[in-house]
Design a protein that fits this description.
Elements (H helix, E strand, L loop, with lengths): L1 H25 L10 E5 L2 E6 L6
Antiparallel strand pairs: 1-2
Length: 55
């Protein structure tokens, strides 16, 4: 049974790592030139990002 538990834990860990990678990749946005980006958290305005400005 120990082998089965280790395999299940490895699968859960793998799914968690894949989920975190997907969330990180989807959170990166590149703002084109001459456009501004609006940052919202939970639907509430946080700030405006201008092109070329650091986040």
């Amino acid at each position: 049974m120990d082998s089965l538990g280790g395999t299940a834990a490895a699968i859960v860990l793998l799914v968690l790592v894949i989920f975190v990678i997907i969330v990180l990749v989807r959170s990166i946005r590149i703002i084109p030139q001459a456009r501004a980006g609006v940052v919202e958290r939970l639907g509430k305005y946080q700030r405006t990002l201008n092109p070329g400005s650091p986040s």
